[in-house]
Design goal:
Layout lengths: L1 H8 L6 H20 L5
Length: 40
């Protein structure tokens, strides 16, 4: 949910795609971390 807000703040017209990819990447990393053995 915080990542979604961040993506809204980081929404430059010319860098829409790269920023989106970065957000998705960090989202996936967070998911892996929360589901991994080192959750906390």
């Amino acid at each position: 949910m915080a990542t979604q807000k961040m993506s809204q703040n980081l929404k430059p017209r010319n860098l829409g795609q790269p920023v989106k990819t970065e957000v998705v990447k960090s989202c996936k990393v967070q998911q892996n971390a929360s589901f991994g053995p080192v959750a906390k």
